[in-house]
């Protein structure tokens, strides 16, 4: 509400400007001033002309529709990624080269276009997924509109209009509200028709109970919870009947401000920590690829550009465009080799698998990247009501009068829900309960308008939660001996005991609750024909009107000062435990109602029509006992808070509830210690905003509490924490939480109690509304990140190997070993299954006993990079080496390679194959590969071009085999395969089988072999492949051993340092 809103749109701009020039704080003005301000009479309402004028100023009472980004802009945004841009450039260049080669050769082979088409396909799929995720962001704003009321009852021109569309309301309209109505705009309460009006506004303010409304003014600087004379758009009338004056509509209402905050928050969404790291990696990769491509060209420039020196100056330049494009193709192959094309697909698959695991733990992930972000969460900002607590009122203590005056009996009551079978009463006498306890049960059951039903597996409340908790207490109390046997109700009824008490005591009149006397009474006619009055309400007020107390045996004695002080002392003790107390009393001397049976013509009925008579009727009462109620914490939350502390995650409670209640709950669940001084840790929202150094306050170690918090406070806290480098998870269920959910790194909505607005604004929804589910999800997020790190390293190390292979080929001057389409197949298809399977690595046992990783932690440390450079260099040597071995050796390591009949050449000939046409008497014999025979009688030099097909196949097979063995190395960062054998992840063994199977498919299916320009291999050739590939495991085992030794030395050094410090 504030100062009349901000400029949120064109149509509201005039009204907003006027309200900003002259702010009208309706809650701090009396009813007459409000009517004068809007020039309206509550009996007649606005005239038609006034309505038109107001609409020109303030516009329609509806939320503005913000235009989302255009589809063209969304498509462009998907290419705002370094890796994607490199890939796009490589695809365009290879497409142009394929077209050029086809033009030159006179025919276009489809195989030449496989590589660019596959890359384009990857980019298109990636863009579609990205656009789909972006479009989901706007749904939160659409869901907000559903909360708005559709119709209102309005007085205009002296007539009552019952079904006026809410969007036609203007400031100054007089609106009638009844029970069940949804409030259509922000309004000032003008008059109460019923004695009380209660509004459920928890979704907007975070309060755990319905709020009583009044016509009395409140201070100008009141927070939203303190504006008792205002009702807000989107909230619901729980009880009562009143007339109100519309003060703010559309985007100027509180719900309009929430709408604007959601929109603002959605505009500043940041990349996840992983995305940032991958972007950084992509930028580094761009520089590396650029340098390597330039180096390859410089090494091979002599092949396509030559010159002679004349008089010391280079002249007579000769340039071969064909050779130039050939080496340009090698540069493109380098780009394809260096980029892990399969990485986006594997990350998406791993995150999707993670969401399935989380769903099994009741955490439903709406946005895939949030799975990874959860793993580095450093602060959890949690709402209290419904997340840390059950959001179900429950009686925790029952106090009855003892066997003699001046004594009390106290009973502890278990249970945290509306389930009557959840918990028991300690020390309860059961069916042997005395007259005093029977009277407590009777009043709790009969002076009560609530109900509890079993709907599926949930216990659903009709009416006020406080009254429902009393009925649940009656069920736990049971029935006294004799009363149970004489009734005929089914034993399956949820509130069986309450129904029996209501059958015994027939209610004939109700004295409604009002805020002055703070009590509710009912007049009942018992089966014996005797009338009595049963009363419940605030303990102090009932004690003031009580003259007697009922002892345990049913005897009535006078309420003396000693007994009164004892009851008030008990009340004080219970209240300090943040329990809400209700007292019970009754009266049997009702001369005016002796013959009353509910008849409207009876003289006593006239007394009931005037609420001012209720205090007099409820006098000379007999006090019988009291109960303490609360919204209890969930059983598993305390352990979850302990887990957070062990995992280095700070818990901050931000609630709209009052300070005392919130502090008591925080002590109980372990956010604060039982005797800890929390004066600097527990503030109200208003107090927090007045602190000069807010960031320093938020940096305090341990738990923090902000109570009476408004939506803007939650946003400011999240923003400050994020600015300070924290990764923030924010929970919420109400409309008021939506902007903060949108702004947080991880927005977590409640699945049961949460509004659709909160769910749509969130990244994750808790199916069970339970805080401990968040902690379990964080553990799962950490595990998923570790696994993702494993396969990212695996894929990157594989790509380093491919780059090393191409670079060595170019540096040595030998024919190109692998073509781009083969590298693309390895990166996308062969590497994909093992990388995905690494996502199933079992989590570390101590995963939730480590501090959260910093969001800027390096994905690849210098030591890991060195390790993979060594591995990559071996991959390059192995792939190029086997290529050279086939051309220059007829056997290797005792394996005979002469079976196919191929001719041997010297290494010098292989390195200078470009000069083949100048060699005299050079000839080669035909060789076989599968069913094919390769003959080079026409042009022996083709032996180094089309004849390299067998050597190229061997290189590709070695690359595939090494990468399969390398995936075993990735099972653990530093753990040996002896301590973490392959079968700890059976999915990885299956994935390796699939990848080898796919490789066999392209080798032995003729059409596919033609597409990938490869041939089948013999058994001996496969033995050579495995012999060359296997050492990669031995090399990495040695590097891991060195890593373990150095990390052990670092650890022992660190522990010695800390020991010296402590000494």
TrEMBL record:
Protein's name according to its UniProt entry: Calcium-transporting ATPase 1, endoplasmic reticulum-type
Gene field: LOC107434804
Subcellular location(s) of the protein: Membrane
InterPro entries assigned: ATPase_P-typ_cation-transptr_C (IPR006068), ATPase_P-typ_cation-transptr_N (IPR004014), ATPase_P-typ_cyto_dom_N (IPR023299), ATPase_P-typ_P_site (IPR018303), ATPase_P-typ_TM_dom_sf (IPR023298), ATPase_P-typ_transduc_dom_A_sf (IPR008250), ATPase_P-type_domA (IPR059000), HAD-like_sf (IPR036412)
SUPFAM superfamilies, per database record: Calcium ATPase, transduction domain A, Calcium ATPase, transmembrane domain M, HAD-like, Metal cation-transporting ATPase, ATP-binding domain N
Keywords: ATP-binding, Calcium, Magnesium, Membrane, Nucleotide-binding, Translocase, Transmembrane, Transmembrane helix
Membrane-topology annotation of the record: Multi-pass membrane protein
Region annotation (Disordered) ranges: 1-22
The Cation-transporting P-type ATPase N-terminal domain, residue ranges: 25-99
Residues that span the membrane, as ranges: 82-100, 112-132, 285-305, 325-353, 865-887, 987-1008, 1014-1035
Pfam families: Cation_ATPase, Cation_ATPase_C, Cation_ATPase_N, E1-E2_ATPase
Domain of life: Eukaryota
């Amino acid at each position: 509400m504030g100062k009349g809103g901000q400029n949120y749109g064109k149509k509201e701009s005039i009204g907003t400007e006027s309200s900003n020039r002259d702010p009208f704080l309706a809650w701090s003005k009396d009813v007459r001033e409000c009517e004068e301000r809007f020039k309206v009479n509550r009996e007649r309402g606005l005239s038609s002309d006034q309505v038109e004028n107001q609409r020109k100023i303030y516009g329609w009472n509806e939320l503005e529709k913000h235009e989302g980004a255009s589809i063209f802009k969304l498509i462009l945004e998907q290419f705002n990624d370094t890796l994607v841009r490199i890939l796009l450039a490589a695809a365009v260049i290879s497409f142009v080269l394929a077209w050029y080669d086809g033009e030159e050769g006179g025919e276009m082979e489809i195989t030449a276009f496989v590589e660019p088409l596959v890359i384009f396909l990857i980019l298109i799929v990636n863009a579609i997924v990205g656009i789909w995720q972006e479009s989901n962001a706007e749904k939160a704003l659409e869901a907000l509109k559903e909360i708005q009321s559709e119709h209102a009852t309005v007085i205009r021109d002296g007539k009552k209009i019952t079904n006026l569309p809410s969007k036609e309301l203007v400031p100054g309209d007089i609106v009638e509200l009844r029970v069940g109505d949804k409030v259509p705009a922000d309004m000032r309460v003008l008059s109460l028709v019923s004695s009380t009006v209660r509004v459920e506004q928890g979704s907007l303010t975070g309060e755990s109970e319905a709020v009583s409304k009044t016509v009395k003014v409140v201070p100008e600087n009141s927070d939203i919870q303190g504006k008792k004379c205002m009702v807000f758009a989107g909230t619901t009338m729980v009880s009562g009947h009143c007339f109100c004056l519309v003060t703010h509509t559309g985007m100027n209402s509180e719900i309009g401000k929430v709408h604007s905050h959601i929109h603002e928050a959605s505009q500043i969404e940041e990349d996840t920590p992983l995305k940032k790291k991958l972007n950084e990696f992509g930028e580094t990769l761009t520089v590396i690829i650029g340098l390597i491509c330039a180096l390859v060209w410089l090494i091979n420039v002599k092949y396509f550009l030559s010159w002679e020196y004349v008089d010391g100056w280079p002249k007579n330049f000769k340039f071969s465009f064909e050779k130039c494009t050939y080496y340009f193709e090698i540069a493109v192959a380098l780009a394809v080799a260096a980029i892990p094309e399969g990485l986006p697909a594997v990350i998406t698959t791993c995150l999707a698998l993670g969401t399935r695991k989380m769903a099994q733990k009741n955490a439903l992930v709406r946005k895939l990247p949030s799975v990874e972000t959860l793993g580095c969460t450093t602060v959890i900002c949690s709402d209290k009501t419904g997340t840390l607590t059950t959001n179900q009122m429950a009686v925790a203590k029952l106090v009855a009068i003892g066997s003699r005056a001046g004594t009390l009996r106290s009973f502890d009551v278990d249970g945290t829900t509306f389930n009557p079978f959840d918990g028991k009463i300690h020390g309860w006498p059961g069916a042997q309960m005395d007259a005093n306890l029977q009277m407590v049960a009777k009043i709790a059951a009969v002076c009560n308008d609530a109900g509890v039903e079993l709907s599926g597996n949930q216990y659903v409340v009709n009416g006020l939660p406080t009254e429902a908790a009393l009925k649940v207490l009656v069920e736990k109390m049971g029935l006294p001996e004799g009363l149970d046997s004489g009734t005929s109700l089914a034993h399956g009824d949820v509130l069986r005991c309450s129904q029996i008490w209501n059958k015994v005591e027939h209610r004939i009149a109700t004295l409604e609750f009002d805020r002055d006397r703070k009590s509710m009474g009912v007049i009942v006619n018992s089966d014996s024909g005797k009338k009595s009055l049963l009363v419940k309400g605030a303990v102090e007020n009932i004690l003031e009107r009580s003259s007697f107390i009922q002892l345990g045996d049913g005897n009535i004695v006078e309420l003396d000062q000693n007994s009164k002080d004892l009851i008030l002392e008990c009340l004080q003790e219970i209240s300090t435990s943040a329990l809400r107390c209700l007292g019970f009393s009754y009266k049997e001397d009702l001369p005016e109602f002796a013959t009353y049976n509910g008849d409207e013509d009876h003289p006593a009925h006239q007394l009931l029509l005037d609420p001012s008579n209720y205090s007099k009727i409820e006098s000379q009462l007999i006090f019988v006992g009291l109960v303490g109620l609360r919204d209890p914490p969930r059983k598993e939350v305390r352990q979850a808070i302990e887990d957070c502390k062990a995992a280095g995650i700070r818990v901050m409670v931000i609630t709209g509830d009052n300070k005392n209640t919130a502090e008591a709950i925080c002590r109980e669940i372990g956010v604060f210690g039982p005797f800890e001084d929390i004066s600097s840790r527990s503030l109200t929202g208003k107090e927090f905003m007045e602190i000069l150094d807010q960031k320093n306050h938020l940096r305090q170690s341990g738990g923090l509490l902000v109570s009476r918090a408004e939506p803007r406070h939650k946003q400011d806290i999240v923003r400050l924490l994020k600015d300070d480098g924290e990764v923030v998870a924010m929970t919420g269920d109400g409309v008021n939480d939506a902007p903060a959910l949108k702004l947080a790194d991880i927005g977590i909505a409640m699945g049961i109690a949460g509004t659709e607005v909160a769910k749509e604004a969130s990244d994750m929804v808790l199916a069970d509304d339970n805080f401990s589910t968040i902690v379990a999800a964080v553990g799962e997020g950490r595990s998923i990140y570790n696994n993702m790190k494993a396969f990212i390293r695996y894929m990157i190390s594989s790509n380093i190997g491919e780059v090393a292979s191409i670079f060595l080929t170019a540096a040595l001057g030998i024919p190109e070993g692998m073509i781009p389409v083969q590298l693309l197949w390895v990166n996308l298809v062969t590497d994909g299954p093992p990388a995905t399977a690494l996502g199933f690595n079992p989590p570390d046992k101590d995963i939730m006993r480590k501090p959260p990783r910093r969001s800027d932690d390096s994905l690849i440390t210098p030591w890991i990079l060195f390790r993979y450079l060594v591995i990559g260099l071996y991959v390059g040597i192995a792939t190029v080496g086997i290529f050279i071995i086939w051309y220059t050796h007829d056997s290797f390591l005792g394996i005979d390679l002469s079976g196919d009949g191929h001719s041997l050449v010297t290494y010098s000939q292989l390195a200078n194959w470009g000069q083949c046409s100048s060699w005299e008497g050079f000839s080669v014999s035909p060789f076989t590969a599968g069913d094919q025979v390769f003959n080079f009688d026409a042009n022996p030099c083709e032996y180094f071009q089309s004849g390299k097909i067998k050597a190229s196949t061997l290189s590709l097979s070695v690359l595939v085999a090494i990468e399969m063995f390398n995936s075993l190395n990735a099972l653990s960062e530093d753990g040996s395969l002896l301590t973490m054998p392959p079968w700890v992840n059976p999915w990885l063994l299956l994935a390796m089988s699939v990848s080898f199977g796919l490789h066999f498919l392209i080798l032995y299916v003729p059409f596919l072999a033609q597409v990938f320009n490869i041939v089948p291999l013999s058994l001996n050739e496969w033995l050579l492949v495995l012999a060359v590939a296997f050492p990669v495991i031995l090399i990495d085992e040695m590097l891991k051993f060195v890593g373990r030794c150095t990390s052990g030395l670092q650890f022992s050094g660190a522990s010695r340092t800390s020991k010296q410090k402590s000494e």
